[in-house]
Predict the structure.
Amino acid sequence: MKRLSLFTICLIILVGSWLVLRFVIGGVISVPIPASVIAMYMGLILIAVLVHISVEDSLFREFLRPIHETLVDDKRRVRRRVIAVLIPFFLLGYTYSIIAQRANPPGSPRDAHPSPPLELTYKDEVIGTMQDVVNPFRHYEKDDPEAFKAHVENGRRVYHQNCFPCHGDHLDGQGHFAPYLQPLPANFQDPGIIPNFQESFFFWRIAKGGPGLPAAGTPWDSAMPIWEDYLTKDEIWDVILFLSDYTGYQPRTFGEAH
Amino acid sequence: MKNRNVVSLLMLVFGILCVLTLAHAQNAPEASEKGKEVYENSCAHCHGTEGRGDGSAAENLLPKPRDFTRGLYKIRSTESGQLPTDQDLFDIITEGMPGSSMPGWETSLSADDRWEVVAYIKTFYDGFKESETSPRVISLEDKIPYSEESVEIGKGLYVDLGCVECHGNVGRGDGTSAPTLTDEWGFQTWPANLTQGWNYRGGADTEDIFKRFIGGLAGSPMPAFEGDSFLHFGLTAEESTRLSELENKDEMTAAEEEASEQFYEKMDAAVDVALNRAEGMELSAAEQQTYNNAMKVVYEKSWHLANYVKSLSPEKRPESAIGNNVLRSQYVQGALPAMDDAAWETLQSGYFPLVGQIVIEPRQFNPTIDSVNVKSFYNDKETAFLFTWDDRTNTVGDETDEATGKTLEDALAIQFPVKVPQGPTAPKPYFLWGGRLPVYLWHWKASAPEQVTELTAKGINNAEVQEAQGELHVQSAYTNGQYKLWVKRSLKTDDKKDLQLEPGVFVPIAFSAWDGANGDIDTKRVMTSWYTFVLEPVPSSRRFVYPPLIAILSLGLLFGLRAVVQRRNSEEVKNM
Amino acid sequence: MKTYLLASLTVFLACCYVGGAFAADSGSGEMEMLVFPKAYKAKAVNNGGTISGVVTFEGDVPEMKVLEITKDQAICGATDKYDESLVVGEGNALKNTIVYLIDISAGKDFDKSTKLEIDQKDCKFSPHVQIVPLGVRVTMLNNDRVNHNVHIFSSINTPVNKQQTKNRKKMPLKAVKKAEGPVSVKCDIHGWMSAWIAYVPHPYFAVTNEKGEFTLEDVPAGDYKLGYWHEACGTNNKAPVAVTVAAGGTVTQDFTLKLK
């Protein structure tokens, strides 16, 4: 069997890597990888290949040989003509598709977890500073498990009477109203949500809803209601207990929420 | 002899497979503590700890969560009056029920947990314990493949069997009986909109439709169309066609009278056999043959009907306009098409799914309007929109809301910002009819179908009718469970409170809709959050200039490269 | 050998598939129902007694509500339809009350010669209350030339929901095996249509006529509890009336009912 030329091997490596990224890792193993990320990975691989072939002169020449041959060698006339037709045609189609592409609206940059205000309020009543306020029923977890359970159960009721159409039966943000909301409802099963914030942060987000977000959170899009209009303070604290009890995640207890 | 060996071997294998299938279909474990635990953690908030469908979330839900204590299950693979198989229960838990609040649990509960729940749910109804035999499963063997002819036959049956009474002429769930339907528990229930297969509770495969039709939806008003109650049970397809002809005549001749009598006698005999069988009597071979023949026709016709129903809905829910899909208004030269112009058919609809407004009281947890479809054209001066949406009832303001005493009616509102936000970080008005930043609204009501009111709003309860009206041209219609609304406006107006339109500018757009018959009023409505609308600019002519230029350039480069290499090669040769 | 194997396999399969009626007593305690004896034995009754009487209504007689006819006006709307949950005639006579013996364990057999029919004429069920013996088929009539669907809300027996298309003049229904009722009968297509069926294990049931009259004949001599059921007035399950029937004798027992 004829040995493959270095050029062909490089070509195979590049195409193969793309296939693996796009279909094996981004399909069989995991969820699809965004095109921009794939482009980045491919850039890295390309650089690695280029470094490899340009370390030694001989290697580089070996790499260039098929290109040279194609360009000038009389034996490669057919290949040359095919390429002379293919490349301009490809570029013709590609530029056309880019120019004819319709403009898309600008995406909106949005901070999903913007900084909370310094003070936590319920309606107009000041509860305390965001950093110091703790869930008043949290201590029952150690002191009085029965009472704790009652609060969790009440939180469960409140959740299912108000929150579950969007945040879902499983608290995974996949309620039956969720698919058509933008931004998507929070997924409490995501390990990056509950453990990263203090309970006061959750109180703030629940009490003030979408309209209470600062500018960085693009308040005009979130459909999260202003729950202080419907729920009592205790109900909000109870529902927070339920969120962490059901998912098994403990909210942060000290330090500032980032 | 050899042949017979092969046949008996095949039969043996087939038999074993049947037994295995049966064994597999009934493999729910005995109810355990684990099942109870999973049920109470994941199901009880809707279905109640006692399985009565009265969990804390139930009050806000329609359709209501199932009451498990009656043993009535809508989605079954079994005949009418039979309990579901364990597999049926498992499948519903796994896949959920589209169009209701029952989610699929495939990703959030392990298969073992789901089986445990199946076993536990069965403990709520003693009938599962008492029945010693497996439920009779509907046979899907003689499926008739989808074809134009089959759909045509099914279409006739759809009328003859009375499906139109509830599901309406073209299947939008707008039949004349639709507004008065209640389920076994007395709760209002709506017939399925058959043009929205993605909302079918038990799935939209032809087999699913067939099973729902044959087995009925226990507990709902949907009857089971199997056996002796079927149209012309006991007659062949040809005889049935002939009898239908006779039955539809205003007057029959004596001979026809006699012919139809004979048909009726044949039917009566077959019905008698079917009832004997249902009551558990032993059938003679001849009777069994009569029964089998009759059922064969029933099943055949049912497949035709299932094929017809299948033809009514697109295969999938249309792609929602969320994300980068934008409602694009297409440029035309000259006059914009009127509402019934065929030109609209050439455009693809923007599909905007609607969700209940659950932010501000009164809230709507149980929407009946699935979505609104929108198309748009524009020319140099004006733009025209065509909105279509399905609503089972045409409520025009002759009913009043019991709670508020206000008039209930169907309506649609289209929302734009008054000023288009400049740049990606510029704030849009609050999506619920604005707030600090105002929105500009077109409000159409079914009681004044030729009129759209322009509003300015700074909040859902803070809308004002604009002083300057009459800039909008309106046409509308309600047919077969669907509203059509056509609105035309100048791109530019003199009113400062109006949105001014310009090609190529991306404009936020949102919708609200009201179904009066579902109690929608004021804030109780269905709605969308912001989407994007644009008057699509006429494509630039550059697209015919640059690409060829680049192609020629690349060709030149290629030849240039070749020339360079050639020259270098010859130099190398010279130098050697 | 193979034949035996096949045969036994077939038998086994057949066993697996044998359909059986299942049912359960879900014990709907909330609804007021008839009370049935645990067992009933049919025997010849000689020189039986008769219980008869009149059921009257006590209280302000509300005007009968005219039902809203929402569709098929040409046929269904030809005549006015009334809500028949409380039909009070002259002298406050209460129609459609079931009067029956609660605790009879043996007596005459059903008269199976009479045909049981419920008509759906002009989109109205008649009679409004129908007694149906166990094991007997009731035939639904439809001469309306509109589609009806017969929806019987059984919970002990299997519920029935069958379309009776416009040309189907007669549709017999499967006989049931378990005493139950009264159960509601509806037509979902015409939401105002309403009737009741009681599936009963013995023949000592009567429904009062326009004059409020009922008669139970051929009752074997003995002591009995007499019960009633009315759609709007409920039952006397908690305090049934005791009657003693002498051989060949006649007992008169009237009832006065109030809205529940």
Notes: Helices of chain C lie at 2-17, 73-76. Chain C has two domains: 36-110+203-260, 111-201.
